[in-house]
Request: fold
Amino acid sequence: MFKLRRFLKDYKKECIIGPLCKLLEAILELFVPLVMANIIDVGIKNRDAGYVWKMGALLLLLAVLGWSSAMFTQYFASRASQGAGTKIRRALFAHINTLSHAELDLLGTPSLITRITNDTNQVQQSIAMMIRLLTRAPFIIVGSLVMAMTIHVKLSLIFFGASLLIALTLYFVMTRSVPIFSAMQKKLDGIGRVSRENLSGSRVIRAFSKQKTECARMDAATEDLARTSIRVSRLSALLSPVTYAVTDVAIIAIVWFGAVEVNLGGMHTGDIVALVSYMTQILLAMVVVANLVILMTRASASAKRINEVFETEPGVRETAQKPVAADESAPQLVFDHVSFHYHRDGDEVLSDISFSVNRGQTVGIIGGTGSGKSSLLRLIPRFYDVAAGKVLVDGVDVRDYPFAQLRRQMGIVPQQSVLFAGTVRDNMQWRDKNVTDGEIIRALKIAQAYEFVSKLPQGLDSRVEQGGKNFSGGQRQRLCIARALVGNLKLLLLDDSFSALDLATDAALRRALKENTQDMTVLIVTQRSTTVRDADLILVMGDGELAGQGTHEELFKTCEIYRDICLSQQQETEVGA
Reply:
């Protein structure tokens, strides 16, 4: 929690005035038992109705002032907690967006969602409770002990004994609860992961009739969380009974020994009432402290998880701040003895890859599953950094570019077709909000998407559901290709982006790309030999190495891997045609 204090720097006033108002309420509350004692020992004993009314009015004034102080505290606590919570979410989201794909893979999407939502809520709630109760409860306890000593020193020893026993109970529960709360948050991540997989993969689950199996998975995850919750609840459940039991015993002792003192003339009846009131105040304060301890232990576990994200350093850093000058005479793209692995201690995914691509060329990247095709493509926009060698765009190492300059000149279509909720036009305007409808239509036509978009009831203003669920797989893929084509591009990276297209649409799309993107360098990752057949350069990947590069005719004769791929998909007469 201490590390997150920076998010409260704009709420210093709230963090100071709020506790002070609560402190004022506590001070006023400490005077109430004394006023009650005077009403009994002076007003009622002497049958002085005027004194009783006067003291009653004072009690009412104390209540109004205390209520006003509490309202001010609530206002300042809400401002500080809600404001800090908003800042934490913004900073957390911004930091997550600086992380490379490697860190995102390591942390996991369900865990990050839980940290932004549930963990931040826990911290936010703890800030509000600290402002409201962190000063009041200890002050009430200490103040009640001091006031009890002013009434009767010997009987105040009962207060000290009761407070010590309750404090030991709080310490016992707190030290054993913190690790369990940390475990609970991790189990929430597990539930989030299972839920996400089930919701996104509902069609697959139903296709294989695995509903019962998935229900069993969810039951297991929730039961695991329930067992942990019950375990910590049992510990937390000790607080209230023990606190009440100790306090009740203390009150009995106060009444017992106080009655003896009254009989001996050493105390007044009102003093016993005041002592019992102070003991009750300590009880209520201890209950508040107990709940605050539970809340703080949960918040501490959540804060630790939030700080884990903030302390995760991005593996890919933006070192350049100013735009760099491109070398127009250099090749468009160069891989210079590039090696790469996803994890520092992991196996190499790419090994000593070298090739050069000139401007306006169409490059096909083909190979077996797991051969490193997509990994190679992801190094160009610098989603990951190379382990060795260099990737050059326009003669400049991609590590020397600012991210915005590097990626602005590229259109990227990932393997998974991702559309965002909104309209077709909204999705097409991701690169540039000011793009015209004419440019959008041109991109849609090249991507072979204009035909079905023009038939939609509202055209470009037609609704796109979350993830593009209201479109077929092929339509989503074509819309993603159109989105990448909008704008002034130098490089178009297509990562297996034709997989959901039929052969006729595939051919039409490749033909449109060739006719309309003469000045654009296009890299196509694919499993289909027909897709790359007419490419200016074909790169054949095999087990992370560049098994061959050249044209279709050259590779069919010289590269065994490429030849096998072609023959597995077409007859030899068709391949040679």
Notes: The domain at 9-310 is CATH 1.20.1560.10 (ABC transporter transmembrane region fold).
